Amino acid sequence: MSYEETTAVKIIQHLKEFSVLFGFVKITMNLWSLPATEEQAINFLMEHGVLPKERYCKEGHLMKLYIGQRVQWNCNQRSCRKKIGLRNGTWLSDMKLNFVTVVRFIYCWSKEMVSVQFCEKELGMNYDTTVNWCSFMREVCVDSLERAESKKIGGPGTIVEVDESLLTKRKNNSGQVWIFGGLCRETGESFLVTIPDRKMETLTQVIKERIAEGSTIFSDSWRSDKTSELDAQGFHHFKVNHNYNFVDSESVDHTQIIKRMWGSAKWRNKKHRGSIKNALDSNLAEFMWRNIQKEKDIFLQILHDIAIFCPPEINMEST
After folding, report:
1. Is residue 172 in some structural domain?
2. pTM for this one?
3. Which residue among 18, 32, 52, 226 is least enclosed by CB atoms within 10 Å?
């Protein structure tokens, strides 16, 4: 068996193990079905909207794509003869990975297999390139969430579990970063945000912004002194006006769904140990983006979101 075949077998086995461990949905594409040549990879990215299928020069002429040592669009009109690189005006502008590696990295990212060690050994990517590409992917996740952030979770007849958790903690106990999240039992919808402090007015504001009226809000960690603080902050008035109902852990038999969400978020943060604080939100965004995909194929969904995040330009001036 060749090195490439051995590598593919290892990756597929790894995917199977992840599927059992984390309950991933059935994979609709696998490593064997990914493009094997640059031309195939280019066509694949075109089909998924990451690269343009056609392009027009500044004179309005339809250009022709040439794939060789350089991949570029050429205008064959004698009066024009302009040329432009395939990557220009696309999400891949200024990115130097070959197209086959681009597709494979996106696929492996979708399966959460892009550790620095893995990418260096299997994809030939160095440390900086891997870190940068993971950052590029999280930018897409952030954009996708921002486009959908106006939607509130929960609603009448639903239970939304909420909780706070410490995601990171420096050795000297300074610079702690707290996150506050909620998860709707019935729909599986969720939110996760960083918060500057754990004051009840801060949490109440997040609740107003992210949870729909009529929801029953549940937390197993808010003690009676916290609910008293809520009352002191005018929370009772908020509850009455917006028809929220808070219940404590003794009155509801619950499954602590949100605890599993914290565990997943902390697991992801551990994988990215060394991340600076201003990168935390994007790491959380990736976690939340994955969490809301449900039965979707994550590989195909991230390609779709890339195309929306940075749609390729069709009409361009040559450079």
Report:
1. yes
2. 0.68
3. 32
